Amino acid sequence: MAYDSDNVFAQILRGEIPCDRVYEDDHVLAFNDIHPQAPTHVLAVPKEAYTSMEDFTQNASDATISALFRAVGQIARDLGLAETGYRILANTGDDGGQEVPHLHIHIFGGRLLGPMLSKGA
Ligand code: 5GP
After folding, report:
1. Which of 53, 54, 58, 91 could lock onto 98 through a cystine, CB 3.0 to 4.6 A?
2. Residue 116 pLDDT grade (very low, low, confident, very high; cuts 50, 70, 90)
3. Cα(44)–Cα(36) distance, rounded to whole angstroms?
4. Other beta carbons less than 10 A from residue 76's beta carbon
5. Sheet of 21-24, strands arranged across
6. Is residue 43 pLDDT above 70, yes or no?
């Protein structure tokens, strides 16, 4: 799938629409989800354009992949989730229920999340 530069996260990365930023470095921007499904619900996105985890793991550099996962851990610590625990999730493609076609990692925490998350829970 070709990258759609009009997707909402691309617009956030370009500063065209606002976000509630919680973390930023050279490779990664993270912001609160607009429809949180847990007390903490953050989206971590690479600044480079990748449609999905499938695209990312095939085409991103090792440095970029490392930076995203390092950032996810740092964000969890920054938000106080490291001790109580948290969940990360990357919906991928149609069966994965991915809605926004720019790779993003959900970070959920702040309550007992149960065995799985269901939408709207
Ligand atoms: P997906 O289903 O693609 O894994 O998740 C997309 C997420 O993006 C959803 O949780 C949705 O609430 C969030 N989202 C969609 N549009 C916006 C937006 O404009 N701003 C923010 N902060 N989150 C958004």
Report:
1. 91
2. confident
3. 14
4. 21
5. 21-24, 28-32, 40-46, 105-109, 86-89
6. yes
Task: Catalogue all structural domains in the chain, each as residue range(s) with its CATH number.
Answer: 8-109 (3.30.428.10)
pLDDT band (50, 70, 90) for residue 67? very high
Catalytic annotation, pick one of 27, 102, 104, 106: 104
CA–CA separation, 49 and 14 (whole Å): 12
Q: What is the pTM of this model?
A: 0.96
Q: 6, 43, 91: which to mutate for ligand 1, most atoms within 8 A of CB?
A: 43
Q: Which atom of ligand 1 is nearest to the CA of 31?
A: 22
- Kindly report the number of other CB atoms within 10 A of residue 31's CB atom: 19
Mean pLDDT of 27-55: 98
